[in-house]
Design a protein that fits this description.
By secondary structure, the chain is mainly alpha-helical. It has a domain at 22-57. It has 2 helices and no strands. The chain has helices at 22-32, 37-61.
Length: 67
């Protein structure tokens, strides 16, 4: 599932080692319904990018229109 497409960013996969909170990963995995930790982290990062894009768009449109 890819929430956000960014034409400037090419998708590449790179192996990394991180020290992460296992409880947070398992909670996120349950919330997202993902099968693997990698899938969980990937979807969480996609959500952060989507949220950032959404907030930037809202800032640009704030005060425009008469809603």
């Amino acid at each position: 599932m890819q929430i956000m497409e960014d034409k400037e960013m090419k998708s590449t996969v790179k192996r990394k080692n991180y020290n992460l909170d296992e409880v947070k990963i398992k909670k996120a995995q349950k919330i997202l319904g993902t099968k693997t930790e990698t899938e969980t982290l990937d979807q969480a990062l996609e959500m952060i990018l989507f949220r950032t894009n959404l907030l930037e768009s809202l800032k640009k449109t704030a005060g425009k229109g008469g809603i």
